[in-house]
Write a structure and sequence with these properties.
649 residues; mainly alpha; two-stranded antiparallel sheet; 2 strands; 1% strand; sodium transport; cell membrane; Na/Glc_symporter_sf
């Protein structure tokens, strides 16, 4: 379509009203639950961090969905589709397999053990060193992730309002910290539910309006074909190509498995439900919601290309960063509809508020359970809640600092997150996998595998961010300014790295021949690894870290005396396949020699009494530890009450 100059790129009064209304609503939810649970008997960690372990599956499912997709989906995904084509549609499917794995293995495990911190499991299965190492890395990683999710909507707000980027970051992180610290998990979940509605409304409105303006799906499809962007069925198996079906679906699913199964935010939602059944229902609601919102965001990116087919806003210098694309799109298509730009920015902010509030609440619980209570087990319930609230405020401050520093990084937000988090996610997922499914793994193997693989992956991740990727591996598709008003950019050339095999028409990309030659010359100065190891798709970083950790851990375990499966405690393992319909020989094979677990039905009456007593007193395993020898002969800190408590329901 032809380009038309928008009348204004700033919020109208109606936009401000809608946006501020969303922020006020989020704050009021936090205030409501702070007042509602102000009684002494409500000041418990179960109530503050787990919503009393009795929350409904629907709000929990919606909360899990928006916590996982965040503003990275609302703003980052359209940018990916705009620059790399329809192949990124597969991002929408990357939450399916992780949720299946969660339903089969992780939800039953954490409910069986009644954990407070997901990393408690690593102490039970291995020892306290493994728990604290993985917990500390997870805290660092989640703070970095929250910082980026704050930065993204701040970009949008900065592009549409007179607010500076720094003030946008301060407002975003401040609101998150306020209602999370006040209201705890209940405020987080119910605010997430409200924000899910806003995200659906804002996302659909942006998609429908843009498609209507470009002339419908057929016109959008034609524009994608002209731009070489109908690459949805790119099944190239080359692992160095950054975005193909395989890199997105396989790499994204591994990343999603770590996010959904092995992080504190997900674990707290698993344990905030009434039962395993409710947690699984919440998981199903979560995956349906995330797929829909992700698809809407990705197709919006495709529609944005059709809208800006002849006048790229970045090259035309209407924006300064790629990830401001959606902000300028909303400003353009809703310039004649008061309040709609405010609705979409509210949707993007809702994603950030949900992710950051979940992170702050979860990290507060994680720091308390893994680092404070082991040193001060005598803390009262009110003292624990107070520490969690103070920790939440400090975490909000750190999140803002990270958001400020992200401004200096290049590339798209999706690639930056995947590159750096991949250095941590793979080894973390591998340690949990080794603990749950591989009874031979010992403490030395788990520690060595995690440390060695993490160091290697950090080196790869940092190198990838510093040096970038070869342009022919990135395969960023060309854009043009030929339809823009008169612009200073007079040089037009064909992108030397654009593969024309999937395009029906010649696409011109506004970049001078001199710039192209300079880029090629600069790449010749790169280290040799830039063209080999560092060229690996950023989406495979997590998978590589996972594989390295598994291999190293098993080899070290064998070399240092692997655990005997027959001596393993069955409470800490999950068979790959467990179904009473199967023959006993088959079931025994998939237990890998681990003894069969004792059934809840054998101890149901006693267990239920202890479970109720445990929750009413808000006891914690770390506060009533007794050293004992487990089946493998190693020391473990679990009480007799805990041993009964963890029989599976």
């Amino acid at each position: 379509m032809s380009y038309t100059e928008p009348s204004s790129s700033e919020f109208s009064t109606a936009d401000f009203v809608v946006f501020v209304g969303m922020l006020v609503a989020a704050a009021l939810v936090g205030i409501y639950y702070a007042i509602k649970d102000r009684r002494v008997e409500d000041q418990t960690m179960d109530n503050y961090n787990f919503g009393g372990r009795s929350m409904s599956a629907i709000p929990l499912g919606l909360s899990r969905a928006v916590s996982y997709i965040s503003a990275i989906t609302m703003i980052g995904f359209p940018t990916e589709a705009y620059n790399y084509g329809a192949v990124v549609i597969w991002f929408s499917a990357t939450s399916i397999i992780p949720n299946v794995i969660a339903c089969l293995y992780y939800i039953p495990l954490v409910h069986k053990l009644s954990l407070y911190s997901i990393y408690q499991y690593l102490e039970l299965r291995f020892d306290v060193k493994v728990r604290k190492l993985c917990s500390a890395i997870s805290i660092f990683r989640l703070i970095f992730y929250m910082g980026i999710t704050v930065y993204l909507p701040a970009l949008a707000l900065n592009a549409l309002t007179p607010l500076s980027l720094n003030w946008s970051i301060v407002i975003t992180s401040g609101i998150c910290t306020f209602y999370t610290s006040l209201g705890g998990m209940k405020a987080v979940v119910w605010t997430d539910t409200l924000q899910t509605v806003i995200m659906f409304a804002g996302g659909f409105a942006a998609l429908v309006k843009t498609i209507v303006i470009v002339g419908g799906f057929r016109k959008m499809w034609d524009a994608l074909e002209r731009g070489g962007r109908m690459n949805i069925f790119d099944f190239n198996i080359d692992p160095t190509l950054q975005r193909t079906f395989w890199t997105i679906f396989i790499g994204g699913s591994v990343i999603g498995t770590q996010e959904i199964c092995c992080t504190q935010p997900s674990t707290q939602r698993f344990l905030s439900s009434k039962s395993v059944r409710d947690a699984r229902i919440a998981s199903i609601i979560s995956v349906v919601s995330s797929v829909i919102i992700s698809l809407v965001a990705l197709i919006t990116g495709c529609a944005a290309y059709a809208y800006y087919e002849n006048c790229d806003p970045l090259k035309y210098e209407r924006i300064t960063k790629k990830d401001q694309l959606v902000a300028v799109l909303i400003s353009d298509v809703f310039s004649d509809v008061p309040g709609m730009a405010g609705l979409f920015v509210s949707a993007a902010f809702s994603g950030t508020l949900s992710s950051v509030s979940s992170g702050i609440n979860s990290l507060g619980a994680l720091i308390l359970e893994d680092f404070v209570i082991p040193r001060k087990p005598q803390l009262s319930n009110r003292e624990k809640v107070l520490i969690s609230k103070i920790t939440g405020v400090l975490l909000g401050f750190l999140t803002a600092l990270v958001a400020f520093s992200v401004q200096t990084l290049g590339g798209t937000i999706v690639s930056i997150i995947s590159s750096i988090n991949g250095a941590f996610d793979g080894p973390l997922l591998a340690v949990f996998t080794l603990g749950i499914f591989f009874p031979w793994t010992n403490v030395t193997g788990a520690l060595m595998g995690h440390v060695v693989a993490s160091i290697f992956m950090i080196w790869m991740g940092v190198s990838s961010v510093i040096y970038g990727k070869p342009a022919d591996k990135l395969r960023q598709l060309p854009t043009t300014t030929k339809g823009c008003p008169v612009n200073a950019m007079n040089y037009t050339t064909i992108d030397p790295y654009f593969n024309m095999t999937n395009s029906k028409h010649l696409i011109l990309w506004n970049r001078s021949l001199t710039d192209s030659m300079n880029m090629d010359s600069a790449q010749d100065d790169k280290p040799a690894l830039f063209y080999s190891l560092w060229s690996l798709s950023f989406l495979y970083f997590c998978l590589l870290g996972f594989i390295l950790t598994i291999v190293i851990s098993l080899l070290v375990s064998i070399a240092t005396g692997a655990n005997k499966p027959s001596d393993a405690d069955p409470r800490y393992f999950m068979p790959f396949i467990e179904n009473e319909i199967l023959p006993e020989k088959v079931r025994r094979f998939f237990r890998f020699g681990v003894p069969e677990d004792i059934k809840m039905s054998d101890h149901s009456e006693v267990t239920e009494k202890i479970r109720l007593s445990f929750r009413e007193d808000n006891c914690h395993p770390s506060s009533t530890k007794e050293s004992h020898q487990d089946r493998s002969g190693k020391q473990s800190s679990v009480t007799d009450d805990d041993r009964i408590l963890v029989f599976p329901a």
